[in-house]
Amino acid sequence: MYFRPEISGESTLAWNRAMIFHKIGFSVFVLCGFPSFPMGKVSDSKYKGKLFYVEKLEPFIVIRLRLIPITHTGLTNRFILFLNFIFITLLFMPQILKITGTIGITYARSPILFSAFIGFIYAKCTRSFFILEMPDLWPEELVHAKPSLSFIIMPVGKALAKLAYKLPHIIVTLSDLAINLISKKYHPKKPVYCLFAGVDTSEFPIRIKNNSRMELIKRQIFPSEFNNKFIVLHLGSIAKMQQLENLAYAAEKLKSENEIVIVIIGEGEEKHILKQLKTEMELENCYLLPSQPRDLIPVIISSVDVCTIMLSPEPIFQIVMPIKFYEYLASKKPMIGVCEGELAKIINSNGIGRTVTSANVAKLASDIKDFKNSPTMLQIMENNCVAVLKKFSLEKISSDLDQILKKECGYNS
Asked: Which of 42, 111, 164, 186 lies most in the core, judged by the most C-beta atoms within 10 Å?
């Protein structure tokens, strides 16, 4: 449903998935909405008045469909958009299949769970091999968002999930821990594989930190006082699952550290809470900046000293591997993860950062000071990032996909 030029993690992940198929020899057609995330407004005039639009976005053919112009926030709005996407993909199915011609593989990944049924219909009609990606656990994540409705969501959602897991030829998820949870909870009879989201390393060339910082200052994205600061970054959505108030409270404990600033770049439902905390606690060392264009993301990451990854401690988020993790890794940036589960294990076992538990603000602030005062430690972590990156490059992920397809459907690249 999401694809570039949108700047969400879902859009980047969809791009990466399309790219690994391209790398092993497929012609890829992408079915998605017009770029409107997160505000629901389509700003590019070329889409004006269109319900259906086909464009070349090298190396892919992108087939875009009009979604209702509402914000991509809140459970109700997202549910409406998901239903909208299902309806319009089925409505335009004859035109879409005329464009694509013969289909060898149907790969469905978004909207979560709903895509299983769209993908199944397309795969049946085209007699293609059907792969379903389940990046998150549903309905468990939905229950977390609306616990008051769990008595309805859980039984209905589990029944739908069990049905969805029966539809594809194989199931793909984003972490090893997710394989274990899906297998234990739903006992799918179809094979389940892990394909990490990965990162296109060509999009994150090595840059000199000070040069990137000066570029952002000249563009007036960063204030001039950032030139000599130790910058701690959060980049991406600002949602409940991130619990970014931890960074605000850490900023309060770091007020006396004049050389340290915390920079939060992005939009989301919880941003107003951060603005309120910044005002109430007079956090002059905490900066809230708007989302930036996709082409500036590598520059922003390269300009900072340490990057943060924030996740709720709820068990369902222990399988999550945010797309920003891979982008920080490609940029050789040490990380502080306020997280548990698979992500914490990877960060700690590979020496690419430190992790703390949610709400342990004192430890978070202490670790930030340690990073600032330990340039040797930072250098070691940067070097470790280079070594770990090989496992998560798109070249490695495409090779993994190639082996899966050879085994499951006899495809040879």
From this structure: 164
Q: Which amino acid is at 413?
A: S
Q: What is the per-residue pLDDT across 260-307, written as a single tens digit (0 to 9) for each?
A: 999 999 988 899 999 999 999 999 999 999 999 999 999 999 999 999
Give the whole-angstrom CA distance, residue 126 versus residue 103: 6
- Neighbour tally for 263: CB within 10 Å: 22
Q: From the CA atom positions of the chain, what is the Rg in Å? A: 21
Cα distance between residue 358 and residue 129, in whole Å: 42
What confidence tens digit (pLDDT) does each residue in 315-334 have?
Answer: 888 999 999 999 999 999 99
**Structure tokens of 85?**
């996407």
For residue 274, the tally of other CB atoms under 10 A from its CB is 20
Does this model's pTM top 0.90? My answer is yes
Residue 52 phi, psi (nearest 5): -145, 130
Sheet strands side by side (includes 170-173): 105-108, 129-133, 170-173, 192-194
